[in-house]
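Morning!

This is the sequence you dropped in the shared folder:
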Amino acid sequence: MTEPLPPLDDRQEDAERVHRAMHAWRRRSQLIHFFRKALPAGIAATLIALLGWVGIKQVLLSLESLRVRDNVVRMVNPRFYGQDDKGRAYVLGAREAQRGGGEQIRLDDPMLRLGNMAGKPTELTAQKGYYDEKNRSVRLTGDVQVKDAGSGFHFKTGEAKIDTRSGVISGNAPIQGQGPLGQISASSYAIYDQGARVVFKGGVRARLEQRGRPAAGNGGPR
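The structure's back. Tokens below.
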């Protein structure tokens, strides 16, 4: 014998309870699904934000460093080309050049080559140098070497000043030189016409060698 069915009101109330429970379960499932996707994305966004802030700090520190250095511009292996007042070409180069806010360019291991009409240039090298753009002059210091292809002389001195407009090379430091005609030393010097004329001053000492005769140090005339 079958049991009688519950009243209609009870069945409706049970159905509503089941519907509410199913709705709550679906809502929890949706939240769980959302957090499963949102949490990794949030963690990734947080890491990206942290890395981005680190990068921004590095950029700010770099900008601060540039400002402290007064906007110094560095050039590696630069070359400057020009002509003097007589149209003779010259080339000024260096291992590295640094330019600040002034007219001077600092040069490390500079090299200056002054050409002439005969194609026999005068070449200068040094440890340090400064190029003055306004006056078009170069100042070399530290183990200055002057090689003149025209005369064959090789000079060593502590400093040299070059006027690129006239091509005159001068210095108030002691100088020693050696070439086909012998040896010479002095307290100061000046080289004109890109090696065609050289003037020595102050304590000049020369040791001349005549071609075809023994040198003075080997018993020849002094």
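Headline: The first helix runs from residue 8 to 68.

More detail when I'm at my desk.
O.
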